[in-house]
Amino acid sequence: MFKNSINIFVVYALIVVLAGCDKVDKNPQPGFYQVSQAPIDHGVFSARGDFLAFVSQNQIFVADAKGDGVVAQFTLSDTPVIDIAMSADKRLLAASYMTYVVVWDLVKQEELGQFKVVGESEYAKTSKVAIYDNPMTLLVGMTDGSVNVIDFKNRLTKRVKHHDARVSFLTLGPQRQLLLSAGHDGLVNISDARTLQPKFEHKLSKRVTSFSYNLEQNLLFISDALNEQWVLKPFSAQGNSIKLSYRERFRWFRASAISPDGDYLATGSSKFWWTLWNVRTGQEIDAFAIQAVTSTAMILDMHIDRANKLVTLSSDGIVEYWEINTLINSPD
């Protein structure tokens, strides 16, 4: 097992050189565990990063992010899952399929129901899901660019079409006052969650591949499929947009997270490493290789807590912890 891991990292080092990345370091303080022995299709952290949900081998699992085991497990239908989401209070879990969403109660560990959703186009399918409790609210993005907001308390469904293509990112901001979305049309939209009227828009030339925000610090990170990666201040009068700086002609960003203090940005690539950035300058601080057991390993989700501890979840089912304060102060 350990010999195979060493061989894999030798191959990875060669790939990094060929890819043009200057250097990729290992975690100086190894802290990781394998939450799943089988590959993971979808995986997300809870809002605080203390729990995670993932899909593997036709089942959906909810586990403690610190390695204390699985707390809930549900068998899925044979239809492929499109996306999954967990409520911030860790009471609800949702999985979207082509034309419907299934919701589970994680406290009672039972299915609450299946909910059919449609878009503006009769051919639209689901592409993104988000769920909230107290009161229960479901957001469903569609392949035609429309967004469904399902308010179960008031038995009300609202639909808006802010995008011209697949919705790839979808969430509510703090206190549920804002609706944030991004799509394959390159548009990033922030709208009033009640009226669904736009309050901020930014257009990229290519589809949005990564999206994260920290509205407490008025920061929004977006990247496209080529060479536009921006840290924006959507509600600042000065604007002050920061473009990420690197030597390569382009980079592909899959996952991202902004630290609560607004100082650091972590981005996951399409391969086995992640990069740490200075938010204020857009300069790269360093790049780090994740633990991996396959050549196709990549980060599915990442989260930074208030102590500047980053946690990553890979497609190999490995959860790994990184001390950002240690990484930035470690000698070269």
Question: What can you tell me about this protein's structure?
Answer:
With 332 residues, the chain is mainly beta. It folds into 2 domains: 1-40 and 206-332, 7 Propeller (Methylamine Dehydrogenase, Chain H), CATH 2.130.10.10; 77-203, YVTN repeat-like/Quinoprotein amine dehydrogenase (Methylamine Dehydrogenase, Chain H), CATH 2.130.10. Helix content is 7%, strand content 47%. The two termini are 30 Å apart. The relative contact order is 0.13. The model is unreliable at 1-20 (pLDDT under 50).
Summary tags:
Methylamine Dehydrogenase, Chain H, four-stranded antiparallel beta sheet, single chain
Structural class: mainly beta
What summary fits the major beta sheet? 4 strands, antiparallel
CATH class descriptor name of the largest domain: Mainly Beta
Q: At CATH's second level, what is the architecture of the largest domain? A: 7 Propeller
What is the total domain count?
Answer: 2
**Percent strand:** over 45%
User: At the fourth CATH level, what is the homologous superfamily of the largest domain?
Assistant: YVTN repeat-like/Quinoprotein amine dehydrogenase
Mean pLDDT: 90
What overall geometry do the principal axes of the alpha carbons give? globular
Q: Quote the distance from N terminus to C terminus.
A: 30 Å
Care to count the β-strands?
28
